Amino acid sequence: MNPDVVQTALAAPPGSFSLLALFWQAHIVVKIVMIGLVIASVWCWAIIIDKTLLFARFARQLDSFENVFWSGQSLEQLYQQVSAREAHGMAALFVAAMREWKRTYESGVKTLQGLGARIDRVMDVTLAREVDRLERRLLVLATVGSAAPFIGLFGTVWGIMSAFQAIAASKNTNLAVVAPGIAEALFATALGLLAAIPAVMFYNKFASQVTRLTIRMEGFSDEFAAILSRQIDERSAA
């Protein structure tokens, strides 16, 4: 089937203001801008849904581990339970610190000097890895939120230029002739805002959640480092 025939069949008659008609009547450059903005919007919503589920699951994992950790269970038993599966959040910090602790004692070293510093370093590295996991793909939301309005504006400017050229060629300034072309051009700006507004709102929301979760993990890291430091001092004095 001839593509031109299909496009002609799908296109609405001149003067129609339906969204599909505005797309088909737009200049090819404006069409490319519109398609790009729609793809960006879908991509952003996919990230938003994925991150919403991730942060909810991550918060539940923190709550669950904190309840178990402060329940009075021995560190060795908790380590065996947690290390048997993939750990994230506070559990990952705990496993990293305990692994360094056990590696030091199992190596048969005669001095514990530097163990506390090594535990702090491994927990810092693990914390950075967990934060990076939380922040992954947030840059996409920030980029779309800042760039989409300008991309839509570019499509609008190009569309208005094409509309003015058509007006000049037809030598007709009737509003019924001018309005469709301007509407097509403004449709690109509307799509840009449609992609940008949710991206900015959810980026700010997720950035705030990352900060709160990071503070919780840093607090646990400091508390657990203090617990291990006391045990190191006690064993060194024995």
UniProtKB/TrEMBL annotation:
Chain's gene name: tolQ
Cross-referenced InterPro entries: ExbB/TolQ_transport (IPR050790), MotA_ExbB_proton_chnl (IPR002898), Tol-Pal_TolQ (IPR014163)
One GO term describing the cellular component: plasma membrane
TM ranges: 22-48, 138-161, 181-203
Subunit organization: The Tol-Pal system is composed of five core proteins: the inner membrane proteins TolA, TolQ and TolR, the periplasmic protein TolB and the outer membrane protein Pal. They form a network linking the inner and outer membranes and the peptidoglycan layer.
Domain called MotA/TolQ/ExbB proton channel: residue spans: 115-218
Family: Belongs to the ExbB/TolQ family.
Signal peptide (UniProt feature, chain positions): none
GO annotation, biological process: bacteriocin transport; cell division; protein import
Full protein name: Tol-Pal system protein TolQ
